[in-house]
Amino acid sequence: MFTKQSLATLLGGLSLALAQTSSQEYPPLAEILAKQASVQPYSPVSNVKGLAFNRFVNIWLENTDFDVAASNSHLAALASQGLLLKNFWAVTHPSEPNYCASAGGDTFGMDNDDFHQLPANISTIADLFDTKNIAWGEYQEAIPYPGYQGYRYPESGANDYVRKHNPLILYDSVTSDAVRLRQIKNFTTFYDDLAHHRLPQYMFITPNMTNDGHDTDITVSGAWTYDFLTSLLENEYFTNDTLIMLTFDETDTYTIGNNVFTFLLGGALPDTLRGTTDDTFYTHYSVIASLSANWGLPSLGRWDCGANLFSWLAEKTGYVNYEVDTSNLFMNETHWGPLSEDDYSEYYAGWPVPVTEGECSAGNDVLDKVKQTWGSLTATFNYTAPFPYDSRSGNNVGVKYSRTLKDGKVEEGVSE
Ligand SMILES: *[C@@H]1O[C@H](CO)[C@@H](O)[C@H](O)[C@H]1NC(C)=O
Ligand SMILES: *[C@@H]1O[C@H](CO)[C@@H](O)[C@H](O)[C@H]1NC(C)=O
Ligand SMILES: *[C@@H]1O[C@H](CO)[C@@H](O)[C@H](O)[C@H]1NC(C)=O
Ligand SMILES: *[C@@H]1O[C@H](CO)[C@@H](O)[C@H](O)[C@H]1NC(C)=O
Ligand SMILES: *[C@@H]1O[C@H](CO)[C@@H](O)[C@H](O)[C@H]1NC(C)=O
Ligand SMILES: *[C@@H]1O[C@H](CO)[C@@H](O)[C@H](O)[C@H]1NC(C)=O
User: Fold this and answer.
1) Which residues are the signal sequence here (predicted)?
2) Ligand 1 center to residue 224 CA distance, Å?
3) Which of 51, 152, 185, 187 is deepest in the core (most CB within 10 A)?
4) Whose CA is nearest to atom 7 of ligand 1?
């Protein structure tokens, strides 16, 4: 097995020359075709044992209210074999800030689906995984070549691949690295990696704009999911010690609570939890926190820091999750920040500063690089809270949360 470093050295000049952050929204077609012929996907493998799972598969569908998804027969059939997370929340609207949040632990004020590039001093889950050489990858249906950075592909006509649904491509700390770019691959490579037993331990899967329901509806996305997962669930290599999560980026209706239909499946799900439901409060940030707790990784020091952990994982680590009174919670808008268009959030030029000291739910320290970059500054938000809120603009404020610690002590708070 090649380590990431040795392979990068081996391929040396060629891949490095090709890799750079590109600010071209619509690169010339000739350039796309040339790169399609020359850029090779990279599929590192690793086997770092986790507390509750050895592989995590994160699959996102689009824009559906909880009740609509729950009444889809294909999704209901899959959920009934797994654990239904009834209280799982997307973090804002529209799509892109939710995908952004899944990788960087923050929305950075984003309230739109524009062409964004997060500066290189913002860390992501890729940095967390790299601390233990845990192989990661993304599978983006119809991305024309690994690491393509354009706004969409094809560049005109019906929607197929779109950048706004690709979490890691938004970050310069990923796109400035030749090797990392090549870990952002298409579905052809997914099946290739599956066949050759070189799937990563973390993967994010984005179906195209038809299959994920964005340009269609739940009938199409439910059927796609059922077809996609049915054969994979029978594949021993795929499911063994694997936790599969199916969720939605956001609800379709903006004025209701952003509670999205979500379930867990796969060989790593304890048998006792199959066919049951879980009322624990989770957000997209809970995934990052759970990945950290599972593999003993640091925190990004952003909204992942205070997020609840998957319930049975929390039991293993001893962390006590918060209960959140969601009767007054919407999570349908973003706090202020530099990526705001003043649509639903307030534009403010400064990049939010993460928290760099104190305890995070995953039980580990904040990533060294985050501490080095931001450690001299005061955290912008209360990132140790179990959900994002912003007292300046009043976003998600007035929400009560509490937990009863093992010694019987009750901790209560209200976002304000
Ligand atoms: C997927 O990526 C592979 C490897 O880069 C490439 O050869 C292939 O043409 C791509 N397939 C599609 C459908 O874009
Ligand atoms: C989306 O992918 C499917 C195959 O999974 C393909 O049949 C369909 O044409 C694609 N949609 C678009 C609009 O390209
Ligand atoms: C499944 O995982 C276990 C433990 O990680 C391993 O011993 C076993 O060989 C795996 N089975 C397959 C078919 O990969
Ligand atoms: C969020 O929900 C509240 C309550 O329904 C509503 O007043 C507000 O307009 C919603 N925000 C967006 C962006 O739709
Ligand atoms: C992070 O990068 C941005 C954009 O280059 C810059 O404005 C900001 O000052 C940097 N922050 C820190 C703490 O280095
Ligand atoms: C931040 O959140 C924590 C709980 O997660 C809470 O204990 C603390 O009081 C909050 N801090 C402020 C300044 O609101």
Assistant:
1) 1-19
2) 20
3) 185
4) 36
